[in-house]
Amino acid sequence: MKALLHATAAVCAFGTYAHAERGSDGQLNIIYWQAPSTLNPYLSGGTKDLQAASLILEPLARFDETGALQPWLATEIPTVENGGVTEDLKQITWTLKEGLVWSDGSALTSEDVKFTWEYCTAEGGGCAQIEKYGGITSVETPDNQTIVVNFSSPKPYPYTAFVGAQAPILQKTQFAECMGSNAVSCSEQNLAPIGTGPFVVSEFRPNDVALYNANPNYRDADKPAFANVVLKGGGDAASAGRSVLETGQFDYAWNLQLAPDVLASMEAAGKGEVISGFGTLVERIMVNMTDPSSDLGPERSTVAHPHPFLTDVTVRKALSMAIDRELLVEIGYGDAGRTTCNVLPAPEIYASTANDACKTQDIAGANALLDDVGWEKGADGIRAKDGQRLSLLFQSSTNAVRQDFQVVLKQWWSEIGVETELRNIDASVFFGGNADSPDTFQKFYADVEMYANNFDGTDPEAYMSNWSCDQIPAPENQWQGNNMPRYCDAAYDEMALKLSQTASLEERAALAKAMNDMLMQNFIMIPLVDRGRVSAKSNSLGGVILNTWDSELWNISDWYRIKD
Amino acid sequence: MLTYITRRLVLSVPTLLLIALIIFLLLELAPGDPMAQMPLTISAEVREQMRQALGLGEPAPIRFWNWLVQFFWIEPQVMIDNLFGTSLAEGKPRIISWQHHAPVMDIIWQRLPQTLWVVGSAYILGILIALPIGIYQAYRQYSVFDQAGTFVTLVGYSIPPFFTGPLLIVLFSVQLGWFPFVYDTTHQVSDWESFTFQVKQMILPVMVLSLQTTAQISRYMRASMLDNLDQDYVRTARAKGLSEARVVISHVLRNSMIPVVTVIALGMPAIFGGAIITEKVFGVNGIGAQLIGAIQANDLPTVQTLTFIFAVLIVFANIVADILYGVLDPRIRYD
Amino acid sequence: MTDRLAHQSTRNQQFWRQFRRHRGALIGGVVFAIIVLGVLLGPMIWTIDPGYPDIRARNQGVSWLHPLGTDQLGRDTLARLMAGGRSSISVGMMAMVLSIGLGCLIGMAAGFFKKLDGPLMRLTDLFLALPLLPLLLVIMMLFREPLSRSIGPQAGIFVLIVFAIGITSWMPTARVVRGEVLGLKERDFIRAARAIGATNYSILKQHIAPNILSPIIVSATLGIATAIITESALSFLGLGFPPDFPTWGRQLSDATIYMQDYPGRVFWPGLAISLTVLSVNYLGDGLRDALDPRQQNLRK
């Protein structure tokens, strides 16, 4: 690799034209410490895979760094105002840009777009992004440039199909044989899809490395500036950070989940800089409203048995008040985190300010609150009422920052007379939906648990419906469902239903905010930190705009080598 | 001896089948889900559809039978096809990974070179260093060399690779800038320059790995040599007037090799198995990284295939060790 | 009867004389005793709670308040080192004893009794081949709840960790011991013992066991180091002690990322593990020399 770097340097030295010509800037080295395993985003929901594929495959529209939609392969974003979306919200019409070609030289037509929908919704294909195509009854192609999508019911937010890094366009000729149950065995296609993006894959080794060359048929004749890209996977966040910030072996490192002081000392080496941006990812504590006691056997953590003390809202409120969120940010995330009192922190129009009191820690207040309702401190300093001690089992997934958080949370809670037992569980078990395992976050055989969640794109409808009654995990639905707190309120469900039928953005925002406030003021979830994305780039890499709403490599065609 | 070898080889077939079954049952029993690494934004229904697409809907006995057929019947055909250009296996279902939807054996072949380069050379280097150290330590028991050797090897063994790896990176890559530390798996050795680059990028992981091997084998070598140095036959040999070197090398060493051979043979399959932590720290992405990645993603076909190949190597390495016992000590007979 | 007792006591005296003469063993024994006493009695003198995060005093250097500094959450390193030592040493020793015991038992049985050799060695092959992580996950899933219910959560996890490490690390010892026994049992003195009608048990105890001590002691020494490190890997995966429970291995792995800025934090747990392993090694050497019948004869 070093030899190649020297070669690159030589090319740069002799190149008199800046970044005006395709391929003039040599090689770009990117490191992802979680290696991409496939280049077909429809077979894998993993962020690393989506991002590695985003150099090749492109959607009709994608989100920019502010979360706004930008037309990409389409000429414009269809809206009701410009006539692209019908008044009844049941039809959307996209128009492709003129003269688009695949990297093999053939033309991109509306047939390819229609095929992408058919591919993802085919029976037995196991498409990970099928929800992006939910509610579509048909896709029509009146001509080569026009795509008309029909929905079964009014779709207030129709920008999910063919939009963003999750739902790019596949080439029909390449994937025609890979429909349905054949999708999984089409390894040649899955590992080397043909796309319209700035790069084409030249070699892909799953979970190791992807090599790309500039796409000779890319629509902008001067781009991309780099002739080839090496996307190396593997290692850990620390070695990825070192390779960009301390040795300069790589130009760009993705997702550096490292303690803030560690990152700062790496950055001090002067070879590169840390960049960060915020999305919708919130680290939160889920409060179990049902009884996880092992005496209940198969009825543990089901709505049949309410929790002995967490159903008391003052206890939940006290737990939240005891937390110093500023300090959590400082310990765990530094510049890549900020305090939040909402589970819906962004985009701007959805962010509530009604709950901001949580930003200041108030241990005395929490103690007073618990005293008032009769939770008395016992001889061991632990509060109890009617023989029920405030003793929690607190579980989370294995991750250095989460374990540090667990320790300090335990300390703060002990200061308000709550005893905490800690557990950490390997992420592959914790986040796995295996109904036979007792340790999944859905089964929630604990009193409180901590993890982070977010939503794709900028529309919170699906995300906010996570806490409606029918999402409660239970033995009847094999413990599937996203309502970990087992919260159930008819008023909340009603608002969720209303949200799915409302088109006006202002009204949607007001509804989503109200739902967020309802959850927050009942302390069903305790938000801790609004987590940003942290990446690092070398000083010689220009054009990088960190985007948390889409692939981080979304504008790689604009990246270039800075010459001194 | 020949009948013994044949008997062992024949017996290893049912053993291996049983091992395959037990591995399969263990993986079935283990908690975990191939969907665990999917983002939380993907809903439960979609996850279930994806599981069905992977074939998880089939009952366990059928999946085990399919794997057996694929491993013992179809994959060998693919190998023949690749060697002789035939098309025996065309259209037959191969063992497909749940993670990347590519044939598991293809990925193994892709990853074998870097594993053999790094882990293999570390192992050989470790043995080559360990044997003389252990022998000389025993020969000069309680000398300064012996004490220093004990100290270095034991401290080296006590410090795990998750620490020595980053330590060497900080020392040699960050501070001194001598070696790269992110392994380039696509590097091709074609001339002297590319060979020196290959050596440079191998140095750090090889150092970490060979430290462990050296420590382990030199301890066994030293202990076993010490046991034999006071034996009567050594005194007899010296009394016969044999040179000191001959006494040590051809008498003591030969008789001291049994535990050492055992340990070396036990380590051989591990060369194929790769080194999980070291491979991860340096981004070598060999078989070890593949196995741990597959376990974490609950990619059962990959885990089953890799572990089974590993089991085959273990069984054969132990047969080789048993044969070597007979060669080293003719008194050991197996009939 | 008195004869035998007298014989026994002279043997014990001989053992001690031999052991004391071994300088390395003596130093090793003293160092090991200091470590054990330190972690057992230390917390009575140094009474800071090892689990208390003094968040305002994070990443402190050496001071009177914190002689070895504090970690990234402001916990006192010295207190954690002592608390960590209790768990690491006890897990290390117990797991080593279990693994060596199992290994010796299986290795000796396989090497000595021809009928058992095949089945036992195939069992060893099986255990060598099983993938460790899924095996541990299954063990934890099956036994964690029942054990913690019957003997309490802390003791339950301790037993489980020792069991998990022991059950997954006895195989090399078994192979090594078997190899040695295979060679030994064809030696003349064993044949002689058999010819004079010694029972299998007494041959194994009197003649075989003392002669395979060397490799066993090496296995044991290396086994302690492996067990301490494996424990930290288990805890890291969430299969071991809870995350606020200090152990040396966990302290070392937590601190690795900080080694450039706070080298002290990796130095102390690293030193503690190394010293323990080294002292046990020298103790073992002394033990071997003292027990070895040949060396006694030689030095008479």
TrEMBL record, chain A:
<dbReference type="InterPro" id="IPR000914">
    <property type="entry name" value="SBP_5_dom"/>
</dbReference>
<dbReference type="GO" id="GO:1904680">
    <property type="term" value="F:peptide transmembrane transporter activity"/>
</dbReference>
<dbReference type="GO" id="GO:0030288">
    <property type="term" value="C:outer membrane-bounded periplasmic space"/>
</dbReference>
<dbReference type="InterPro" id="IPR039424">
    <property type="entry name" value="SBP_5"/>
</dbReference>
<dbReference type="GO" id="GO:0015833">
    <property type="term" value="P:peptide transport"/>
</dbReference>
<feature type="domain" description="Solute-binding protein family 5">
    <location>
        <begin position="69"/>
        <end position="468"/>
    </location>
</feature>
<dbReference type="GO" id="GO:0043190">
    <property type="term" value="C:ATP-binding cassette (ABC) transporter complex"/>
</dbReference>
<protein>
    <submittedName>
        <fullName>Glutathione-binding protein GsiB</fullName>
    </submittedName>
</protein>
<dbReference type="Pfam" id="PF00496">
    <property type="entry name" value="SBP_bac_5"/>
</dbReference>
<comment type="similarity">
    <text>Belongs to the bacterial solute-binding protein 5 family.</text>
</comment>
<dbReference type="InterPro" id="IPR030678">
    <property type="entry name" value="Peptide/Ni-bd"/>
</dbReference>
<keyword id="KW-0732">Signal</keyword>
<keyword id="KW-0813">Transport</keyword>
TrEMBL record, chain B:
<feature type="transmembrane region" description="Helical">
    <location>
        <begin position="308"/>
        <end position="328"/>
    </location>
</feature>
<dbReference type="InterPro" id="IPR000515">
    <property type="entry name" value="MetI-like"/>
</dbReference>
<keyword id="KW-1003">Cell membrane</keyword>
<comment type="similarity">
    <text>Belongs to the binding-protein-dependent transport system permease family.</text>
</comment>
<dbReference type="InterPro" id="IPR045621">
    <property type="entry name" value="BPD_transp_1_N"/>
</dbReference>
<feature type="domain" description="ABC transmembrane type-1">
    <location>
        <begin position="112"/>
        <end position="321"/>
    </location>
</feature>
<keyword id="KW-0472">Membrane</keyword>
<dbReference type="Pfam" id="PF00528">
    <property type="entry name" value="BPD_transp_1"/>
</dbReference>
<dbReference type="Pfam" id="PF19300">
    <property type="entry name" value="BPD_transp_1_N"/>
</dbReference>
<keyword id="KW-0813">Transport</keyword>
<feature type="transmembrane region" description="Helical">
    <location>
        <begin position="151"/>
        <end position="175"/>
    </location>
</feature>
<feature type="transmembrane region" description="Helical">
    <location>
        <begin position="256"/>
        <end position="277"/>
    </location>
</feature>
<feature type="transmembrane region" description="Helical">
    <location>
        <begin position="115"/>
        <end position="139"/>
    </location>
</feature>
<dbReference type="GO" id="GO:0005886">
    <property type="term" value="C:plasma membrane"/>
</dbReference>
<feature type="transmembrane region" description="Helical">
    <location>
        <begin position="195"/>
        <end position="215"/>
    </location>
</feature>
Automatic annotation (TrEMBL), chain C:
<dbReference type="GO" id="GO:0055085">
    <property type="term" value="P:transmembrane transport"/>
</dbReference>
<feature type="transmembrane region" description="Helical">
    <location>
        <begin position="125"/>
        <end position="143"/>
    </location>
</feature>
<keyword id="KW-0813">Transport</keyword>
<dbReference type="InterPro" id="IPR025966">
    <property type="entry name" value="OppC_N"/>
</dbReference>
<feature type="transmembrane region" description="Helical">
    <location>
        <begin position="25"/>
        <end position="46"/>
    </location>
</feature>
<feature type="transmembrane region" description="Helical">
    <location>
        <begin position="266"/>
        <end position="284"/>
    </location>
</feature>
<feature type="transmembrane region" description="Helical">
    <location>
        <begin position="212"/>
        <end position="239"/>
    </location>
</feature>
<feature type="transmembrane region" description="Helical">
    <location>
        <begin position="89"/>
        <end position="113"/>
    </location>
</feature>
<comment type="similarity">
    <text>Belongs to the binding-protein-dependent transport system permease family.</text>
</comment>
<feature type="domain" description="ABC transmembrane type-1">
    <location>
        <begin position="85"/>
        <end position="284"/>
    </location>
</feature>
<keyword id="KW-1133">Transmembrane helix</keyword>
<dbReference type="GO" id="GO:0005886">
    <property type="term" value="C:plasma membrane"/>
</dbReference>
<keyword id="KW-1003">Cell membrane</keyword>
<dbReference type="InterPro" id="IPR035906">
    <property type="entry name" value="MetI-like_sf"/>
</dbReference>
<dbReference type="InterPro" id="IPR000515">
    <property type="entry name" value="MetI-like"/>
</dbReference>
